[in-house]
Design brief:
About 65% of the residues lie in helices and about 0% in strands. It has about 190 residues and is mainly alpha-helical. The protein has one domain.
Length: about 190
């Protein structure tokens, strides 16, 4: 990722931590959550590797086509799952995320190596697809943030939430939502450097 090194390393840490938690969520007893966690772990680690500042490590020329292939395969797998379930907003979001990763990898492949002090890739103006992805992920981040806000009046009346004690830490829906929010913020940061 081009740009200053400090924010890049923070993004690497955020995405790697999210990917690690998603790997741990794959131990869930709920099959659907295990499947979703696997895709999210791939996305988290892929974003972490892609976000490494170019000042620290300039990827070899073959890296971007490999990224495009891996996330293209993930997009096809998600498209298959979307078709099999006939409707799932979560599968659709995974499809958009994998597509965004393919788009960024292809953009990195097509762009010449930037000057160390350059801000982003490409020519003048904001490409239409980048703008559309920025709008999508901005909306996703805002909606995910709203979903994390606790709702007053939900619980047992004694300040505890119903059923939380029965869930293992890898099955907590609010932690999964927080991870998705983190990855959405990371995707926004990466798209802003395009």
């Amino acid at each position: 990722m081009p740009g200053p090194a400090s924010p890049g390393w923070l993004l690497v840490a955020l995405c790697a931590a999210t990917g690690t938690y998603c790997l741990l969520r794959m131990r869930s007893h709920v099959e659907e959550q295990r499947r979703a966690a696997g895709g999210e772990a791939l996305m988290g680690f892929g974003m972490a590797v892609m976000a490494v500042p170019t000042a620290a490590l300039s990827p070899p020329s073959w890296a971007w086509p490999v990224y495009a292939t891996v996330f293209g395969a993930a997009a096809l797998r998600t498209l298959w799952a979307l078709w099999a379930t006939r409707s799932s907003a979560h599968h659709l979001h995974h499809l958009v995320g994998a597509g965004a990763m393919v788009y960024m990898a292809v953009a990195m492949t097509a762009s010449p190596a930037p000057h160390p002090h350059a801000h982003g890739y490409g020519g003048s103006g904001l490409p239409l697809l980048t703008g559309a992805l920025l709008l999508y992920f901005t909306g996703y981040v805002l909606l995910s943030g709203i979903r994390l806000v606790p709702v007053a009046g939900v619980g047992d009346g004694d300040g505890t939430r119903t059923g939380v004690g029965a869930l293992g830490w890898s099955d907590r829906p609010e932690l999964a939502r927080a991870c998705r929010l983190s990855m959405g913020i990371g995707m926004l940061a990466m798209l802003l450097t395009m």
